[in-house]
User: What shape does this take?
Amino acid sequence: MTRVTSQKSAASHGPGKARVPRAVREQQMLDASVEAFAANGYHGAGVEEIAAIAGISKPMIYLYFGSKEELFVACIRREAGRLMDMIAGVVRAEDPAERQLWSALEGFFTFVSDHRGAWTVLYRQARIQGGQSTREVDAMRGRTIDLIGELLARAASSEPGPEAVMAAHALVGACESLADWMLDNPDTDPKTTAKQLSHFAWPGLSKLMEATRARQRGEA
Amino acid sequence: MTRVTSQKSAASHGPGKARVPRAVREQQMLDASVEAFAANGYHGAGVEEIAAIAGISKPMIYLYFGSKEELFVACIRREAGRLMDMIAGVVRAEDPAERQLWSALEGFFTFVSDHRGAWTVLYRQARIQGGQSTREVDAMRGRTIDLIGELLARAASSEPGPEAVMAAHALVGACESLADWMLDNPDTDPKTTAKQLSHFAWPGLSKLMEATRARQRGEA
DNA sequence: ACATTTTCTTACTTTGGAGTAAGATTACCG
DNA sequence: CGGTAATCTTACTCCAAAGTAAGAAAATGT
Assistant: This one.
């Protein structure tokens, strides 16, 4: 509610609306897109509706982004970048494995919490949509899983085996599910969620890495 | 490929197509719908296309199901029922908690494996779509999570606490993610997947239940 | 002041696909 | 046999929403 179409319309001289440089408008359009896509899904959200939220008319979107799909891809890219930045910003390479894992979880849940609704829905949308956006998100998801697999393997000082890959998939799935849950329970603390998941997942991971190390000693 | 429009067209007398009773046709339509929705998503699949796959013309679908959305809901309901039957068929109430958990996982992964592509995509579709289908699937998912939470609580002989609920969410998410993974790796054995996830998840669950029991003793 | 570029809008075309009208053909039942 | 009900098709209507044409109004430079 109380959407602001232009915060300095009165300051500008005359009846014409405030002109805004392209770079800024693009970000406003992306903000509006994320809001609309998150609320109604890719097909549910209309370009006209998005334009309205951004306080602008439809052709501008086509002028700056070319098509609805490209607009969507631009959203995905921006949000994906933000998520990656968030995680990269809190994980310290010199920490031990368990600590790194916990940091990554904390970064992820904090991001979801900060971007209420927006990201997770967008993320789920993108994986379904088909086309470029799906490819990009799936690629990012795949890289994340590989990374976690390698992290686990490194903690067990070995190569990533099939169990580590499976564990990584399971862990990522658990994160996604808990992220959804956080959206329904807005008063949940991201750090608590991260810590609890960490507590829950670590015994199994620890056991798995132990087994890996044992197997490796037996083979060597 | 080699889609069969009617296996007894030659057997029937004359050029007219084989007539089929409603109950049978409905199932054929649902089969076609699942195939099309799974391949192209709810919006990507056209009613005309579904009709073609079922070897029938479009108005029949509207005559029997009313609208595209109702058709989709009917798909969801049928597949959800099958999944529930599958799980209910393998879980034995008198078994201990760990065994029950493993059985449920086995049932789930077997179902996904048997209904290659179809179900998981449908399921993911439904959770996004909005409308009746989303409500039903989310409700089913919620019941499943509650069930698992209660199972865990019962194993710890206590009421379901917030940690149990969280663990249940994480576990369901892990299952969904691994189901997706199975679709990309068709040569994966469902039982192996179930067993591995069980091995991976149990230490954490066990520890959690232990803590719950300890806390309860302290309070009593 | 004038030309050029950038920002922005109103009003339009187009189309893909959901949904329907009207009726043909075949089975069923006295 | 009719007559009624069920199955099934061709050939439409209709609309929401993507995308576009044409140009107005403001900024920017010279």
The radius of gyration of chain A is 21 Å. Residues 14, 16, 19, 46-48, 58-59, 62, 67-68 of chain A lie near DNA strand D (CB under 10 Å from a C1').
